[in-house]
Every structure is written in structure tokens, then in C-alpha cells.
Amino acid sequence: MKKSRNRSEISVEALKKQVFQGILLFLALAALGTLFVFLFKSKIKESGAKKDLLVYWDNGDWKTAYEKSRERLLEKPMDQFLLTINGFSAYQTALAQVNNEESLFYIDNCILSLRKALLGKNTDKDGRVRYVLGKAYYAKGEYYADLAVQYLEAAKDLSFDAADFNEYLGLSYAVIKDYQKSIMAFTASLDPAAGEGSDLLLLHIAQSYIGLEDWEAAKAYLIRCTESSKDIDLILKARLLLGKAHANEGDIDKALLVFEEVLETGGENAEASFEMGEIYAVRGDTTRARAAWRRAYRADPNFAPVWARLYAM
Known about the structure:
The protein is mainly α. It has 15 helices and no strands. The protein has helices spanning 7-58, 62-75, 80-95, 100-117, 127-140, 145-157, 165-175, 179-189, 199-211, 215-228, 232-248, 252-266, 270-283, 286-299, 304-311. The longest helix has 52 residues, at 7-58.
């Protein structure tokens, strides 16, 4: 039989047990405290890094914002804030590139980051990401215009708006040849009080009407563009289109007058001379047609449409 222990022995064991439990509790609390401090410091560090990125963004230092956010994404590849900043800054950096290949490099990175950002939480109401994605797809080229429309329309459904929003939407619709919707978008962006800022929109609207073969409407907008604009290059583009519109309607004399105005205003112009050659050829005046085509070639030897005419002579 076991001998019964006295009360003093039991008290000592209980005390030892309490001390041991106290030590364990202390160590656990100490570990939690260390973890808390570590997490707190990490949070402060992370918060500071994000603030730095916003400072770069606010100061227009797109390249640095892009590079720093890219570095952070190596550690946190699906961080929604980092992906958004990286995508936005990549787009802005792309616009600053002179080389088209380098520009497309940043555009591709913009699209990749923003598509990932849309996989995160609470993005179903973020029109900004869809708006920039739409512009990025437009910048990527004509084969991506349908995606540009998709994301811009998605941003529009979220009531997002920006100064150039409808212009990009109109340009994207024009590329996929949905001219009715491009006209609607351009017209929504047209501000009569904007003066020169609206001249390019007038030209875009006219081009969409040409796509619809609505020559009367096209001519009306082209005339408005030439009368309101102070940009000589824009005026020349509008006059060239106006001359073609007159020619398509069969008003040859007016077309020739407009093309002659282009030559008088802007000097030698391959397209204007070529179109005049086309008109002379239709009239059966081959001598003047050839002279006009040669003039077009002298103005721009790389103007492709004139090659076929000259080689056929």
C-alpha cells in the first residue's frame, strides 16, 4: 500500500506546478508580444512603402512607381493595391516611350497587372481599373479594340467618367466599325465651349459618318472642323477628307478645288495630288492624271497608292 502523503508535501507540489504554469504563461505571452511587435512593425513598414508609392504617383514619377511596385510584387504577387499602382504607372510610362516596342512592353505589363487586380476582392465596383484597361487595350492595337470596348463599357456601367472617356470609347467603336456607337460616344464628349479641344472630335465624327457613307453629315462636320481649328495639320486632314467626300458624291469640281486648297495651304501633299490624278483619270485626261501622280511621288516617294499608278504607265 502507498503511504499517504502529508499536507506539506502536497502543498509543495502544487506550488511547483503553479510556478511551472506561470513560467509557461509568461513565455507564451512573451512570444505573443514579440509576434505582435513584429507584425506591427511589418505593418508600419508595409504602410510606409505604400505611402512612398503614392508619393511617386502623385508627383508624376510613373517610372519609379512602376519599378518600386514591381519589386514589392515579387514578395506579394497578388496584392491588389500593388497590382493597381503597377498597372496604372505602367500605362503612364508607356505613353512616355518613343519606341513603339518599349511602349508595348509597358502596355502588356499594365494589362497583366490590372487583370490580376480584378481577381481580388471588392473590385466589382471599381471603374478606374476597367477604364485604364480599356485604354491599354486600345493602345495595344486594332486587334484588341473589341476588348477596349468591353472594359470601357464595363467602366461606364459603373458610372465611371473621365475627360477622355467617351473619346476613347468612340475611337474603339470606330476601329471595330460600329460607327453608330462611335458617333454617339464622340458626340457625348463634344463640348462646344471647349474651342480647339473639340476640333479633333469633329474630325473623328466626320470619319465615322464617312464609314457609314453619310457624305452630307460628314461634310458638315469637316467644314466645322476647318472653320474652327487653328491647327494646320488638322485642317489639312479635314480638307483631304472633304475633297474625297465631294468626289464620292460625284461633285468633281468641288473636290478639285478642295485638293488645290490643300496644296496652296500646306505645300506639296502626296495624297492631295494623288486624288487629283484619280479625278483626271476618271475624266479621261490621262496627261494631267500622270502629271498629278508624278507630283504625288515627288512629294512622298513612300506613298504606296501612287506606285501602282506609275508602274502601270
